[in-house]
Amino acid sequence: AMVDTLSIVIPCFNSAKTLRPLVEALIPVVSKISNKYEVIFINDASADATWNRILELREEYPHLRAINFSKNYGQHNATLCGIRSANYDLI
Predict the structure, then answer these.
(1) Per-residue pLDDT tens digits for 5-44
(2) Which residues in 50-83 are b (16+ Cβ under 10 Å) and which e?
(3) SS3 of 11, please?
(4) What's the rounded Cα separation, in Å, for the pair 77 and 66?
(5) What is the DSSP letter of 38?
(6) What share of the chain is helix, strand, coil (3-state, %, to 5)?
(7) If you compute the radius of gyration of the chain from its CA atoms, what whole number of angstroms results?
């Protein structure tokens, strides 16, 4: 079933190696079920290249949004931040 709008929130911590495979698997599926969507990545002060990878992916995929924490706040706070910044009601 199609949904009009959808926000997907993904907290990230030291995820540089897994982000591209995630996006490449996620986008084709989401684009089939939603007319308008966004994917929000929240970088929770990763020590690796996670933030740079998010920025690279955002250049390639216009539906991606990015939030960067200056210090680690934890998965739950990162998730809540993404929910609060979501543009759509279905998250």
Answers:
(1) 999 999 999 999 999 999 999 999 999 999 899 999 999 9
(2) bbebbeebbeeeebbbebebeeeeeeeebbebbe
(3) strand
(4) 15
(5) E
(6) 45, 25, 30
(7) 13
